[in-house]
Specification:
Blueprint lengths: L4 E7 L12 E5 L4 H7 L1 E8 L4 H20 L5 H18 L1 H4 L14 E9 L2 E7 L3 E6 L2 E4 L19 E4 L5 E5 L1 H7 L1 H10 L2 H14 L8 E8 L30 H36 L13 H33 L4 H26 L5 H4 L1 H20 L4 H18 L2 E4 L2 E5 L8 E6 L5 E5 L4 E6 L4 E7 L3 E2 L2 E2 L3 E7 L2 E6 L4 E4 L10 E6 L11 E8 L4 E8 L4 E5 L7 E2 L4 E2 L10 E6 L3 E5 L2 E5 L25 E4 L7 E6 L4 E6 L5 E7 L11 E5 L8 E5 L3 E6 L33
């Protein structure tokens, strides 16, 4: 049978090392048999030609990453696992290079990375050695010192292209392996190392090398590690000897007391006790016979006369019996309910089993998270498919742990990590909100509608003051352009209920079904307000849900006017007069067959008619909603299905994106106009809740490749956000253009083809 080996180790203690030494040594000798047989024993030296505590942090980081990756990876053999562990450490160190302040020093070539790695693995009789950068390995066998080759001697960590090479060989009793910093070898030379290894055991050899290094004026990198192979002696425990009893000469003979006359006295006492028992039985029998004869001689008692029970007494007894039976039934029922109630509680065994399942599920979820976001690992960026499968499994495991009773404090941070990773995979973007304008507290306002006006300024409808305001963002002023009770060319303005934009005009629909046109005259918010005659407007009633426009001739300022009328179950379109003075003709129907539109909450027109109906986005072409379908979202396991209440866009017909507002999840979802597929979704970052109750929207289209921006109103303020990650500074991305909104629903912008 082959001899078993044990390793004698020599490592310099931290107190004996120089104060500015950045090197790190790591020794892992597994105590678990399966790991020792598959992975072996790990000996690691990480050096740095840059002294100081920052470099020491970098070497410790490299050592920890190599140890974790090597023992965690079970996918290949030792050679491949070592290469993968070194590459993972190189990647992690590259990410942390600025933080660790790694650079070049006098001891390294210009531009060369300063971190070196010398690693050795011993498994049974096999030895695996790899060195990268400024780190050296020497093998002493039979008083001969051999240098193990290093193809990457001049290429330390971190580096852009690295291909580590692992040397494999056999080891025997007496072999010695030294992992040494090149700074030590430059001071002492190979002869000093050879003499120490040949003449001394590993620990004294290391201490002698350290003393000579300091005596020679050495400083900085002084890492060294020596292992020596020795044979493990097998000790077999001897069997314990058991004494044999001698044969018993009196086996089978009656027991006798060693006390003289003891047996005779005992026999006499036993005979006396037996005689006493016989005498007692004889006396008891005679006394019993005497008692029986006395009872026979006594006179007999005559039987008692029969009693007749009255009917009243009998009924009273029956009533008492019935009451007793009812009481018995009530008590028995109460006991049965008590037993069923207390007996339905889970047994301790069931509770313990459920807790074990929860702990196992929590541990499995942590392992899945480690696979995706381990040290130097980001599967979300590098392998999205695998990351999605692993994170979905982790989310399911966390649900199992929650059902098993694991505390929320333990599950919440893990769930946040998993959901954050899935959000990155699913295209969820956190954007930064910016306050554009806030109305003062006095007078109070209740904003209900928002459009981007023909001059590019935002216009809002206030239900509290029954007014429409133009907001000057530069001067931070809100100027009223329409107010309830104001006289305009002999007519009185009523409270506004909806607003939209048509070409050069701002259209306002008041509570009396009168349509008004306001056209800006300058940049101060002044302009004329005139009534627009619409055929049949007096019959609209108060149940219109949305209005909108579509520019048919931008040069002449002509546009169609649209209403969504639940009473007519139609979307009606009014064509303008040739001079643009009004809409004198009867409306045309945009639906092939009448259908309920009372659940329509938003309208947008860009050449096609878009509506938000019962929480879904529909496109109306040729009178039907066929040919376009809203795509499914990939995050159905994280959030409820979207319920769209408002739609906006800033792009041309069948180009770019249309955005849907989902208030239940406080998000804005982008779909491609061309085919309805999901593009991205946006949320407010920093814990902002401004999207919980939005009253109106419009989109500022991005210039060239810049992202779009959205503006929205809450009850008292105007906000804006660029649809890009919150880590980027918000900035202007849109240019003034036609985009409108009917209040409470968005509406139309200029386009090239009539819907």
């Amino acid at each position: 049978m082959a001899p078993r080996f044990q390793m004698k180790l020599g490592v310099l203690a931290d107190r004996d090392r120089s104060a500015d030494s950045p090197d790190t040594t790591l020794v892992v000798e597994p105590t678990v048999g399966s790991r020792a047989r598959s992975k072996g024993q790990l000996y690691l030296l990480v050096t740095s030609m840059v002294p100081g505590p920052r470099a020491r942090e970098a070497t410790r980081l490299v050592a920890d990453v190599i140890r974790h990756e090597y023992y965690y990876d079970e996918s290949a053999g030792i050679r491949v696992c070592l290469i993968k562990a070194i590459l993972a450490a190189n990647k992690r160190l590259t990410h942390a290079r600025e933080r660790s302040a790694l650079g070049t020093t006098a001891g390294t070539q210009a531009g060369a990375a300063p971190i070196g790695v010398a690693i050795a693995v011993v498994r049974d009789h096999e030895l695996y050695v790899a060195t990268v950068g400024p780190a050296e390995a020497y093998l002493s066998r039979g008083a001969r010192l051999s240098t193990l080759p290093d193809p990457d001697r001049e290429r330390g960590l971190p580096t852009a292209d690295l291909e580590p090479d692992v040397w494999r060989g056999e080891i025997g009793v007496g072999d010695q392996l030294a992992l040494v910093s090149p700074n030590v070898m430059a001071r002492l030379g190979p002869d000093a190392l050879k003499d120490a290894l040949v003449t001394l055991h590993p620990q004294p050899a290391i201490e002698q090398l350290a003393q000579h290094f300091l005596a020679a004026g050495g400083s900085g990198s002084d890492g060294a590690l020596v292992i020596e192979v020795a044979e493990s002696s097998t000790i077999r425990a001897p069997r314990a000897l058991v004494a044999v009893k001698p044969p018993e000469p009196l086996a089978g003979a009656p027991d006798r007391s060693p006390i003289p006359l003891a047996d005779t006295v005992t026999d006499g006492v036993a005979a006396a006790q037996a005689g006493a028992r016989r005498a007692r039985r004889a006396a008891g029998g005679a006394l019993g016979r005497l008692v029986v004869r006395v009872q026979d001689a006594m006179p007999l008692r005559s039987p008692a006369p029969r009693r007749v029970t009255s009917m009243g007494a009998r009924r009273e007894m029956q009533r008492r019996g019935a009451v007793a039976i009812l009481v018995f039934v009530a008590v028995a029922g109460s006991l049965g309910l008590a037993v069923s109630f207390f007996g339905s509680r889970p047994s301790p065994g069931t509770v313990i089993a459920s807790a074990e399942v929860g702990v196992q599920a929590l541990n499995d979820a942590r392992k899945d998270i480690g696979r995706v976001f381990g040290p130097g690992i980001d599967l979300v960026a590098n392998d999205p498919k695998t990351a999605r499968d692993v994170l979905s499994d982790a989310l399911a495991k966390l649900d199992v742990a929650a059902k098993a009773g694991i505390s929320t404090a333990a599950i919440t941070p893990l769930r946040a990590t998993v959901v954050g990773g899935l959000d990155r995979l699913f295209g969820v973007v956190d954007v930064t909100p910016v306050v554009q304008f806030a109305f003062p507290a006095d007078p109070a306002v209740d904003l209900r509608g928002l459009v981007r006006g023909p001059d590019g300024a935002p216009y809002v409808l206030d239900a509290k003051t029954a007014s429409v305001y133009r907001i000057n963002l530069k001067d931070q002023q809100a100027v009223s352009i329409f107010r309830d009770g104001t006289k305009a060319k002999g007519l009185t303005e009523a409270p506004p209920v909806m607003i939209t934009v048509g070409g050069p005009d701002l259209l306002i629909l008041d509570a009396k079904s009168v349509l008004w046109r306001w056209r800006p005259a300058d940049a101060t918010g002044r302009g004329p307000t005139t009534r627009v005659v619409v055929a049949g407007s007096a019959e609209w009633g108060t149940d219109l849900v949305a209005i909108g426009t579509f520019v048919r001739d931008a040069g002449a300022g002509l546009y169609n006017f649209y209403i969504v009328d639940p009473s007519a179950q139609e979307i009606l379109a009014y064509a303008p007069a040739a001079d643009g003075a009004g809409f004198p003709g009867a409306p045309s129907k945009r639906l092939t067959t009448p259908r309920p539109v009372d659940k329509v909450t938003s309208l947008y027109i860009d050449g096609d008619i878009w509506i938000a109906d019962a929480g879904a986005i529909l496109r109306v072409i040729g009178g039907t909603t066929d040919g376009w379908q809203q795509g499914a979202l990939p995050d159905g396991a994280l959030r409820p299905a979207p319920v769209i209440t408002a739609i906006v866009s800033g792009s041309d017909r069948r180009a770019g994106r249309i955005y849907g507002y989902d208030p239940a999840n406080a998000r804005l979802i982008g779909y491609l106009k061309a085919n309805g597929s999901y593009a991205a979704q946006y949320r407010l970052g920093g814990g902002s809740t401004e999207w919980a109750a939005v009253r109106g929207w419009y989109v500022e289209p991005g210039i060239a490749d810049a992202p779009d921006a959205v503006a929205w109103i809450t009850e008292t303020g105007l906000f804006r956000a660029v649809l890009e990650p919150a880590t980027s500074a918000p900035g202007a991305s849109g240019s003034p253009g036609a985009a409108g909104s009917g209040s409470p629903a968005p509406a139309a912008s200029a386009a090239s083809a009539a819907p």
